User: Fold this.
Amino acid sequence: MENARMNPPMRRRTPAALVGAEPGPAHTIDFDGRPVPALPGQSIAAALWADGVLAWRTTRVGGRPRGAFCGIGACFDCLAVVDGRPNQRTCLVPAEPGTVVTTQEGNGRADLAV
Ligand code: FES
Assistant:
């Protein structure tokens, strides 16, 4: 006799599948000049992660790669330039159709110089 608990069916377990979400059709954002798929309601960080991008910022000292860490807006590791505005926490910014995201190097203030 087959035991269902010992042999669960192989399914892809995604966050959307786990909660039974039925998001609308995907759109794209632009990341460093290439299209990245995003779902309605997804944050930029989530869209980048889902596309396999793990780092989109470098540290001020040492230039070490950083991406999302806390995912709730507390650590500031996920900063990027969004639609020309540096220091945006991508875990809090929705990935809207056509959003342009570029890798941020250091403190991202070079573009703010007057
Ligand atoms: S991942 Fe920590 S602030 Fe965005």
